[in-house]
Amino acid sequence: MEQRVQMVSDGILLEGLLDRRSEEKGMVITHPHPLYGGDMHNSVVELIKRAATDQGFTTLRFNFRGAGRSQGDFDEGVGEQRDLLAALSYLKEIGVKKTILAGYSFGAWVIATCFRGKRIPSERVMLIAPPIDFLEFGDDLKIPGLALVLCGDRDGFADSRDVKRLAGLWNPEAAVTILPGADHFFSGTMDSLKREVTRSVLSLFHPAPDGGC
Q1: What averages of pLDDT result for each successive group of 10 residues across the chain (213 residues)?
Q2: Residue 121, pLDDT score
Q3: According to the model, what pLDDT value does residue 211 have?
Q4: How many whole angstroms separate alpha carbon 112 and alpha carbon 109?
């Protein structure tokens, strides 16, 4: 059962939903672009959450600053990185020992760009539909612990061929899954998406080398 929680980032309150299942393994899930209606209630975010809790994970999904009832204003991804770190710190403070990061669309970009210059306490990373044709990721980005990059072969914001190429640069050990017939919003392919995410959740929770954000 999810409960409403609050976290502090840069002195502002962020709202989140916590489903506490385990102290051993947790997942922080980040949502699509708030200026285009994205928030923690997005259907893909909810799908990732269900796939994780079905496997006994504690999950925390939250609204970036300016989204939903979270205070503050959209900050072009800069403040949102600090929001992500606040969510990770929250799980650590309540006793969750190891955490997977799972981001969808804009949320995937926030996670990825957080690996420039900071440290991030995450064991594994999943990027769902990273919008590489809409937001700048960069060829020089390195993501220790990146285990899965998933997108559709009809994604108008992420050409699957470029996703494969970039994922190999971000982390050569990352698995890349291209979902046939799926667009950026996984319209009509949510069942296939849940199967892939569930399979990944089952296999991902192994310690990753230290490094990153």
Answers
A1: 97 98 96 97 98 96 98 97 96 95 97 82 88 93 93 96 96 95 97 94 62 43
A2: 67
A3: 42
A4: 5
Contact between 123 and 94 (Cβ < 8 Å): no
Buried b / exposed e over 124-161, threshold 16 CB at 10 Å, is bbbbbbbbbeebebeeebebbbbbbbbbbeebebbebe
What pLDDT is recorded for position 212?
42
Q: Which residues of 4-32 are buried (b: 16+ CB within 10 A; e: fewer)?
A: ebebebeebebbbbbbbbbeebbbbbbbb
Domains, in order of start, for the chain? 2-204 (3.40.50.1820)
Place of tokens 């393994």: 25
Question: At a CB cut-off of 8 Å and minimum separation 6, what does 19 contact?
Answer: 1, 2, 3, 49, 53, 58, 59, 60
Q: Going by C-beta distance under 8 Å and a sequence separation of 6 or more, which residues neighbour residue 84?
A: 28, 30, 101, 110, 111, 114, 120
How far is it, in rounded angstroms, from Cα 52 to Cα 100? 10
pTM, two decimal places: 0.94
For residue 8, the model assigns a pLDDT of 98
Q: Which residue has the tokens 């072969």?
A: 153
**Strand, helix or coil at 208?**
coil
Which H or E run contains 178? strand 175-179
Whether 78 and 84 have beta carbons less than 8 Å apart is answered as no
